[in-house]
Specification:
Length: 303
């Protein structure tokens, strides 16, 4: 049996709907539904209860789900072992766009300069939740994420990086007071926002909710997952954005942008390296993690 069908079942259950699983797997909703249906016909049992608002496993589905996760884990291990036969290393990383844009190029350079053996590298930018799920499902060896403090990563091995400091940023042409900015003035601006799932957007929502406000109270909201486009729009005076100060450090230092803090909003988030317990002893993973800490000027976690 093609393990893609098992992977689809696992994704569907974890996402809670066919539509969300389709988005995660880059498939159509119909294709996801057909793959699950194929498994049900293959095993002769209904695997998913579709009656409720959220998909749920049947008793047979729980058995198949448990076995599917074991099969997929075995497949990942087999692939890594076969790669080692050819003396070729492999490492896959998922990180948030902020870390990937600001730090990853230097991390890659440091890692490649210090690695003598041939190595296959895979790097994907995604939201914190997607990165964490990817490590959980063995799609990635490790992830680097900026995340809210309530995010549960207790099941993984982790290495804590310095917190990421955020601020609302604007062009001086907007004449907004800095560093302190009141909410009423902020809401007169257009907000340049990240997509749902990004921790910066979660923090903005939480800050607004503390005042009984919501995103719709801004004078317009533009959602984009292109950090470069967001920065250029802020520079042009097209609105304000809640961003990592690391992302706009140069613009803040040369005065092209101003940073603003709003009372009641959280302006810091955690930044963490996560990896599965089975990869924790892998020297390649340890070496990559050390490169991350070296680039960020922190003591190396693995001697």
């Amino acid at each position: 049996m093609d393990t893609r069908y098992l992977k689809t079942l696992v994704a569907t259950v974890k996402c809670g709907s066919f539509s969300k699983a389709a988005e995660k797997l880059h498939l159509t909703q119909s294709a996801v539904s057909q793959r699950v249906k194929f498994l049900e016909e293959r095993f002769g049992h209904k695997l998913i209860d579709r009656a409720g608002s959220k998909l749920a496993l049947t008793s047979a589905g729980e058995l198949v789900m448990e076995s599917a996760q074991r099969v997929l884990a075995i497949q990942d291990t087999l692939i890594r072992d076969l790669q080692r036969l050819h003396n070729k290393q492999r490492i896959s990383l998922c990180c948030t766009p902020t870390f990937g844009t600001v730090f990853l190029p230097r991390v890659l350079n440091s890692f490649m300069m210090g690695t003598s053996r041939s190595t296959d590298l895979k790097f994907i930018f995604n939201s914190p939740d997607a990165a964490i799920e990817g490590v959980r499902n063995h799609e990635f060896d490790l992830a680097v994420v900026e995340h809210c403090c309530e995010t549960d990563i207790s099941e993984f091995n982790t290495c804590d990086l310095p917190d990421d400091e955020l601020a609302f940023v604007s062009s001086p042409s907007l004449n907004l007071p800095s560093p302190k900015l009141d909410l009423d003035t902020l809401l007169t601006m257009r907000l340049l926002s990240r997509k749902d799932g990004c921790s910066s957007k979660k923090l903005v929502r939480a800050g607004l909710e503390s005042y009984g406000k919501q995103l719709e109270d801004f004078n317009g909201v533009v959602t984009s997952d292109d950090l470069h486009l967001t920065c250029q729009t802020v520079l042009a005076g097209g609105g304000v954005s809640f961003m990592s100060k690391d992302m706009v450090k140069e613009y803040l230092e040369n005065g092209q942008m101003l940073a603003h803090e709003v009372k009641g909003f959280t302006h810091r988030r955690n930044r963490t390296v996560i990896f599965s317990a089975e990869r924790g002893e892998d020297q390649l993973v340890q070496s990559f993690v050390n490169c991350i800490f070296s680039v960020m000027g922190r003591p190396l976690p693995f001697a």
